[in-house]
Amino acid sequence: MKIFIKEKVKIMVAVLFLIVAAIMHTEFVLAKVNPASLPEIKNITVYDGEVRTVVKTRGNTFKDVLDSLSQPLRMHDTYWTSTEKLKDGAVLYVERSVPVTIIENDKEKIIYTTQQTVQGAVNDAGYDWRKMMPLEDGLSKVHENMKIHMVPYTARNVVREESVPAGYTMWYDSSLAPDEVVVIQEGTPERRRLEIEEFISDGKVIHESVFKVETLEAGVKGIARTGKRDGAVGWVTTMNATAYHPNDGGGDGITATGTKAGYGTVAVDPSVIPLGSKLYIPQYGEAIAADTGGAIVGHKIDLCMESYEECYQFGRRDVQVFINY
């Protein structure tokens, strides 16, 4: 009987020990997963090419973020960061490498580059830009499996004169078709002298760079009517014009807008041409719509002259009126 009681006590002690051990283990596990004991969550903005994502991580290094990307960093890929150490709000930029074929003397070699331009790629490949250059534009964008042809070159400076076609100020005319252009006043081209560095390979100019431009004769813009609104600086219409003197009708020479009337002042119908508009009339010159008149209704305008003789000489005629927007 005593033996039985001893064994029973031993069993109870063992069970109690197991229960205490289990409770302690549970508390230990709970302590390990207690959120308060975990590293803070950091929000990291990742730019991978044109794709922007925000990665949430408890990691301590940028490598932890890189390892979590859907596309791991490859051998020739590179990255750079906005901060030295990983912290909330940091930015990670991933630059993916692409294979590019360099061709020289009919021999090809493949390199992997993260450079964005052709010149950057050939610099990566170890070429000396003072001796070799690509036939392709050095500033053009690199793309996967691109072929770049390298050649030796020499350089020389040349002077060249050229004529630049005259530009035209375009005025919208609703009476014209959208693709129709009518020149009102011819422009004159600009003449200029260029100092150019030419790059020569195998006797041919493969590239050139302008390093100085000197204007020999300034160009003058012409004037044209167009049926297209886009690019027009204003609109043009035909109006019936008369001339008046500031003292006509016993007036005091003060316009409807309160300014003193003089050459360059034009009376208009404000419902057609807003007061204050800048105008150009080929037979008259530049003007301002600053006055009104009882007889000036619709497509009629009255041009202020400096003398009665000028008024009589002008008379009444149809003119083209260019109205700035």
TrEMBL record:
<dbReference type="InterPro" id="IPR036908">
    <property type="entry name" value="RlpA-like_sf"/>
</dbReference>
<dbReference type="GO" id="GO:0019867">
    <property type="term" value="C:outer membrane"/>
</dbReference>
<dbReference type="InterPro" id="IPR010611">
    <property type="entry name" value="3D_dom"/>
</dbReference>
<protein>
    <submittedName>
        <fullName>G5 domain-containing protein</fullName>
    </submittedName>
</protein>
<dbReference type="InterPro" id="IPR051933">
    <property type="entry name" value="Resuscitation_pf_RpfB"/>
</dbReference>
<dbReference type="Pfam" id="PF07501">
    <property type="entry name" value="G5"/>
</dbReference>
<dbReference type="GO" id="GO:0004553">
    <property type="term" value="F:hydrolase activity, hydrolyzing O-glycosyl compounds"/>
</dbReference>
<dbReference type="Pfam" id="PF06725">
    <property type="entry name" value="3D"/>
</dbReference>
<feature type="domain" description="G5">
    <location>
        <begin position="150"/>
        <end position="230"/>
    </location>
</feature>
<dbReference type="GO" id="GO:0009254">
    <property type="term" value="P:peptidoglycan turnover"/>
</dbReference>
<keyword id="KW-0732">Signal</keyword>
<dbReference type="InterPro" id="IPR011098">
    <property type="entry name" value="G5_dom"/>
</dbReference>
